[in-house]
Amino acid sequence: MSNLIKIGICGWGNVATGLYKQLSTNNNLDLNFEITCIGARRDNPKCDPSPIKIHRDIFDVIDDDIDVLIELIGGVEVAKDLIERALASGKHVVTANKAVIFEHGKELIALADQYNVKLLFESAVCAGTPIIKMLSNDLQANEVSKIAGMLNGTTNYILSKMEEGESYEQTLKNAQELGYAEPDPSLDVNGTDAAHKIGILSSLAFNSSLPVHGFHIEGIEQITQSDFIFAREFGFVVKHLAVAKKTAHGVELRSHPTLLKSSSNLASLKGVRNGIQIDTDLLGEFHIAGSGAGQESTASGIISDLISLSRTENSSSMNMPEFTNAVKIIPFTELSFRYYIYLEVKDKSGVLAKVTKIFADQNISFDKVSQKEQLSDNKVPIIIISDPINELNMQNALKEARCHEEILDLKIIRIED
Ligand SMILES: NC(=O)c1ccc[n+]([C@@H]2O[C@H](COP(=O)([O-])OP(=O)(O)OC[C@H]3O[C@@H](n4cnc5c(N)ncnc54)[C@H](OP(=O)(O)O)[C@@H]3O)[C@@H](O)[C@H]2O)c1
């Protein structure tokens, strides 16, 4: 039988109420626990936890008779304060909050060490799909060289629905109603949420420090339904990918839309699923995939942390990352990609030759070019798949192309080979 742990839950939104439902109804749990209290500044009509004690001031949870505080309020500053005070009061903390771990994980882990308690965050990346403990413990014998993943369930849900022909706006609304999207969905769709997660995974895999700033982050706001149609013609699907890769020159870190080969493992993952490909020396390339958002999946990750805490006689024997080694992040402009280039040009002679020259001046050659049917207003779409080229050359070509009045619209999506 595991040790009894007394739990205080802070926050009473999607994840907290989903966790409560699992803890109160799931008969399969090998967890000896008691929910002592909940910190909720207001009731949630979707879930009545009575007769459990409610504190309207979430900070009062710390002073109650608890062993572990579960932080589920989200955001950075108040969450950081709450976690700090709980750790300093000798309480373990479990959190699903990637933003606070990304920004303050290093100092919070140090604080937990100082007070001989634990800060666990399995559900902060990919919700319940197990990746944090895998990188911290199970892969210890391996050298990880690359992690590439679809790390945001909302983004993958939206892109999958757009691939089926639904609109961006409607699918974002559905994702919010289903509880997949973050309280502020702009962090999902602008790539920041996936960037936080790949930052955390990069520090676990490569022992790098947190927070890490200045790496390339781009969202899915510019993706349109026609991109899916054109990409399909060339054997690709549109996904949002976050990548951390260790090279001899440092660590490559990025979070942006990509074209993936339709036949690839990650391309086949639809809906709210998250998928990660990990390259290691001993295991080779392997994949994990699972639901990366939502009440049940997140509850699964939080409960796995509670079980770890309850099974550990001496919590100081549990592995926690340090996030302290500063590694060099390779500037994005030094990376090299093949590109999908979408242009809308005026329908007049000589324009394609002009486009070709602009890119050729930056040593960019084309693997495939496809001119599409004329749109309204005399506009013609052209789709180009480039050969591999340095990002800086591509940025220069885009800057030059935007100066020409015949080029009416222009965007790129990088191809992940
Ligand atoms: N949703 C998912 O699928 C998912 C997956 C993995 C991880 N997470 C993480 O889990 C955490 C919670 O997400 P969620 O979806 O449950 O969010 P949510 O539905 O918006 O719930 C947040 C809860 O925290 C409360 N809260 C926020 N700020 C507070 C403050 N300053 N003081 C007191 N209470 C405060 C809110 O109260 P009010 O209702 O009064 O505002 C609400 O009860 C976030 O860190 C998120 O990143 C979510």
Write up what this structure looks like.
With 417 residues, the protein is of the alpha/beta class. It has 3 domains: 5-129 and 295-317, Rossmann fold; 135-291, Dihydrodipicolinate Reductase, domain 2; 336-415, ACT domain (Alpha-Beta Plaits). Helix content is 33%, strand content 27%. The protein is built from 13 helices and 17 strands. The protein has helices spanning 14-25, 60-63, 77-88, 98-114, 132-138, 153-163, 168-177, 186-189, 192-206, 225-233, 295-311, 351-360, 391-401, and strands at residues 5-10, 33-39, 53-55, 68-71, 92-95, 119-120, 144-150, 216-217, 236-247, 250-261, 273-280, 284-291, 336-346, 366-371, 379-386, 389-390, 407-415. Strands 7, 8, 9, 10, 11, 12, 13, 14, 15, 16 and 17 form an 11-stranded mixed beta sheet that branches. The protein is elongated. It starts with a strand and ends with a strand. The protein binds NADP nicotinamide-adenine-dinucleotide phosphate. NADP nicotinamide-adenine-dinucleotide phosphate binds next to helix 1.
